[in-house]
Here is the input.
Amino acid sequence: MPAFVLEIGVEELPARFLPGLESELVRRFAEGLDEAGVTHVGLTAFSTPRRCVVQIREIAAEAAEREEVVTGPPLKAAYDVGGRPTRAAEGFARTHEVRLEDTFTLETEKGAYLAVRKKMGGGSTLEILSRLCPAVVASLPFPKKMRWGSYDFGFGRPLRWVLALLDDTVVPFEVGPVASGNRTSGHRVHGPGPFTVERAQDYFTVMAERSGVVVDASERRRIIREKGDALAAAKGGHILWNETLLDEVQGLCEHPVPILGGFDPAYLEVPRQVLLTSMQSHQKSFGVETEDGTLLPFFLTVMNITPPDDALVRKGWERVLRARLEDARFFWKTDLASGLEPWVEALDNVTFLAPLGSMGDKTRRLSDLCAWLADELNNGISREHAARSGRLSKADLVSEMVKEFDTLQGIMGGIYAVRAGEPEAVADALAEQYLPAGPDSPTPATLYGAILSMADKADTLAGCFSLNMIPTGAADPYGLRRAALGIARILQEKGLRLDVSALFAKAMAGYSGIKRTLEPEQALARLDEFFTLRLKNLFVGAGAETLHVEAILGADARDVRAASERLSALEAFSRSPDYGKAVQTFKRAANIIVKQGQEETLTGNYDRALLAEPAEKALADELERILPIFAEHEQQGRYGELFVLLRDLRPTVDAFFEGVMVMAEDAKLRSNRLNLLQALVSPLSRLADFAALQM
Here is the structure.
């Protein structure tokens, strides 16, 4: 079978574009070829800053031909009562370019229809690719497309050449101002070209041997890591690989050449977080450390060229980094001379959100909220330390270091707190307050960090909801979804018991002096609903069944830990053989109570003297035996045992429904039986919303 290669040559693309382009090229070509009926094997995509490449190792020379049945009008509309074809039948045949006698009657569940068999697909793969290639190239998504000259065609960067070969044949097409051909360009220095590629199978050989380009991103990563590790080992250390930065660096080069530079050890007095941030964010370089974690005065950077004089290039990199590190040391010494207290006072001049006051106001609210959380959690946490962490939480925002390196906010606060003699618990909280920063980010390691993080997120949520700044669609400028998920993750992963609604209410109360858009009760109700939806997303995203999650959260979503444990117990119960029957039984009881509870007030208090039938007496006896046990298990959080109790109770409830007319004509008897059911449903409703389960 022939091979195919497409190369789109461009001006330098940003590294962040490349992974998405590769996946889109594979997806769009696979869909287009499958739709055309062209079989293929080994479809892959590659990219460098100057090219996007699609390779198909084997592709059929011709598309497969297939027969499809196309339905037309109903038979009764295709022929009149005399059996003559109608205009509908004639139009159907004409549309599909067949004679009327070539149609046939197709019997379906919805009746008889006029139909025709059509041969689909087929044709030359070369012709199919000549249509598919420009369509795919034109449809590739970019955050923003560029247009140049007088052309309407848009792409991430201007096109320079297009190579498209099916074996040794050029696939002819045009995209914007460029026509396809069999010529490519290589590295600007080590193999500029242009080069002619005779066959698709020769493309990667030409790139490797003549063009000086490493097309495969995984190969560029391997080269950088292997050579970088060897350079660091020669200095007695190893590279501090940052995978995100490594992805960016390999996407910035076609010809990766790692080089190790050094800096004055005197700069090591600056905290390692600052040094590494300066290297990574400004110079796209990696730090080096020893096995015991001591930072060494070296850095690894990656060039896109093999220089004639390594020493000269290294000296240039070291000179640029030295200036950055000198700035960092200046900020460090300036900040140490200032101290925390002046920064805390300066926060009154820093705006949080215009209607919500200053950062100083926020830290005072956080101090109160952290103290409240310490009391609520009751885990041996110092109320004073928690309150102090809230007050100092945003102090580093006015430090010189964080003004320069904003990604170090919180981290620098923790470092400066240690230098100022603050308790270790306070410093830990400051360093961890922004965790988790995303779905893959860890939660705070300490309880003080967890408290400050939850307080900070709850304060922001409460303030924004008070102003009706509620996320809609994809827009979430204040990161409220991330904040809600962060609180949920902390409570779940730390195993903390807390009424989240009470936390939000306390946070709302801290905004007593603002001009609200929503009344506190309305804002709190919407915030509770918002949090429940985020919690649902968290559980479903972790693999839980959606109906199970809805049933659990429909009962109670305020205690995240309890909800998580009840969900695990329900999922375990769902794997038992009698799960379906149990759900049907208790769902029936719940539905009756929901419906009849709208007609009269049901308290769950029933009169044993009015119990007439053996089945209802048996249910009352069983409830009086089980409910104290139920309450004990519930208090201890033994939710798995609660579902075992329900399984044992089910036969008695089934017998009740079979032997007792709940909706009796006698009003007293009917009310008593409904209250008996209410006594059953009331504890069940705290476990799960059985009415939400479907079987």
